[in-house]
Amino acid sequence: MLADSALPRPTPLTHYMTFRNWRATLFWSWAAVTFCAVCYIFDKWGFDFSFAARRDIDYRMFKNPTELPMRIFGLPHFIVALLFVLSSRRMKQPRNIAWFAGLLAVGSAFCFLFYRLGAHTNAFLMFLFYFYFLIHGFRDDAYFYKAYGDMPPDEAKTHARIMVVLQCLAIGLLLSLIWPTYAQMSLTKPRLADPILQNFFPADWPFVAKLMSTFMPMVLIALFALWRIARIFPDGLAGLWRTHRPILAIQLASLGIVLLALVGGPWTFNVVVLMHFVGWYLFALYLLGRNPPKEPPRGVWQWMRTTRSGFMTLHLGLAAVVTALIAVDVYGFGKDCWLDVVVGSKNFYYWTIMHVTLSFLPR
């Protein structure tokens, strides 16, 4: 059992860097979405406020106010992450080089299967894609929590195992809710139609039976796991909440945003992905500010890699380049040129699959 430190009064969430940066992440993500939503109006109808005519969809850059900022922030995120990994000291070790090569092969295989099985037109594949990213997102949230110094330093291995279990429970509960929901929706919405989704449950089962067949077993598993975790703390589940309140509050809020996808559609998931990219950007700035270089950086790359100003120049500069390339692709060629392979919305899935797979490189 973890030691009882006199059960102090709960510390305000704003005291924790984990929560403060998540709150900043939420603000900047929604600010980007709001800006793109305003641009959407002018992009669709121009300055003709009679709304009599609309621009051809192939020549509209802001047709999805949540998807566009996700790409604009996401592609630089992928590039910076890859550059930082390849230029890191750990990549000089044969073991890590082998890990990287293996994950690169696995990611390539995933991308090939995604393409061969229908990519974004396959509802079941999109279902798997979203959850593959959620595993990546929840894992990084726990990493931030530890790196910010908000995870209790005592019994670090025990707390780390608790984080893994909680992440698995969150993903499992989401899966148990969303799987039968999408299966039900696929019966009436052609765009979600898929043999696996439609035939997974007996055809004569009502929706409540489908939902309970997956959700209730997962609830029992979650209750058992929480009961085991509660035994570690002197005050049970209250101790779990008190000790890990920042990350638990963030993950509960993230679960709520994801569940909105059941009502509002996949656009809400785009916000979750965007928040991941913005969160990493803020996290990197925090680390660079906390650990400035001991001596002036040698060369431009070292400046970009080791200083806040250099990192901001690199990341935001890449975002500006990506924005310009998307604009050329859309307004110049109607998405019918080689640029669409690099910055287009349909190919963003492949970059994401590869990035998530490579992120499993040991830290």
Task: Identify the notable features of this structure and list them briefly.
363 residues, mainly alpha, 0% strand
Topology overview:
Elements: H1 17-45, H2 67-86, H3 94-116, H4 123-147, H5 156-185, H6 195-199, H7 207-230, H8 236-243, H9 245-259, H10 261-264, H11 267-290, H12 299-306, H13 308-333, H14 339-343, H15 348-358
Structure, explained:
The protein is an all-alpha fold. The chain contains 15 helices and no strands. The protein has helices at 17-45, 67-86, 94-116, 123-147, 156-185, 195-199, 207-230, 236-243, 245-259, 261-264, 267-290, 299-306, 308-333, 339-343, 348-358. Helix 12 (299-306) crosses helix 13.
The end-to-end span amounts to: 28 Å
Give the structural class: mainly alpha
Rounded average pLDDT:
87
| Rg computed from alpha carbons, rounded to a whole number of angstroms | 22 Å
Largest sheet: none
- Low-confidence blocks of residues: none
Percent helix range: over 70%
| Total strands | 0
Number of domains: 1
Overall body shape: globular
Strand content: under 5%
State the order of secondary-structure elements, H for helix, E for strand: HHHHHHHHHHHHHHH
- DSSP helix count? 15
